[in-house]
Amino acid sequence: MAGLALLVLYTARLEECREFYAGLGLPLRPERHGGSPAHYAAELPGGLVLELYPAGPGRESGPVRLGFTVPGVTERRLLTDPDGRTVELTGC
Fold this sequence. Notes:
Layout: E1 6-11, H1 14-23, E2 29-31, E3 39-43, E4 49-54, E5 65-69, E6 77-80, E7 86-90
Parallel strand pairs: 1-4, 5-7
Antiparallel strand pairs: 2-3, 3-4, 6-7
């Protein structure tokens, strides 16, 4: 069975998105490797890596809906990130 290992979100609001997702508890750290631009990455439980990259021509993320399990959340909540993506939070 295939599994999801990497999710890259491109954003014109890199620092705002970093603050938003870090506020949800994602352990984002700055990275830069090879010829890639400076970006942020977080390894989530189960090994999924979420990366936030600066948007550019041909590098935009469309309307994506994300869901995270977050300690302390007692009922389902819907938030909107700085780029307008819907982010669903549920407890774990």
